[in-house]
Design a protein that fits this description.
This protein is of the alpha+beta class. The strands form four sheets. The protein has a two-stranded parallel ribbon with strand order 1-4. Strands 2-3 form a two-stranded antiparallel ribbon. Strand 7 and strand 8 form a beta hairpin. The relative contact order is 0.10.
Amino acid sequence: DENTDRQSGNRSVAIKDLENELRLIGTGLYPTFALFNHSCDNNTYKYYAGSSIVVVASKNICQGEEVTETYFPSARMIPRPQRRAWLADNFWFDCECSACLLDQPTLEKISKDCHNFCCHNEKCKGIVQEKSNCPVCGEIIDV
């Protein structure tokens, strides 16, 4: 917590070096962006260009799929219990995004072995394991 750091007097050199870069310099109101819902596994990233906010897709977004942003805790880096506790403390809601509902593992917990593969048919969203028929379109997949 930034306020605790200031009160404790035990600021690390790294934080002290960044002190001027981390201070709040203003607030913006972006009504369209405010309509985006949170997801711990968001599909957009944002950056600021002058007084505008720019939102860019960070992964493929299918027609009809919700466009999401993250309020901070990323499913790739922070385990579900810590993410959900932080969101409850700071934004007063219990996160029910797909990453939380499915308990998506962090990057360090993801297996290095490939087990599931996408169907070769570009219009199909089926997933197969090794050599088998796609459960969606029936195409034979041999990985």
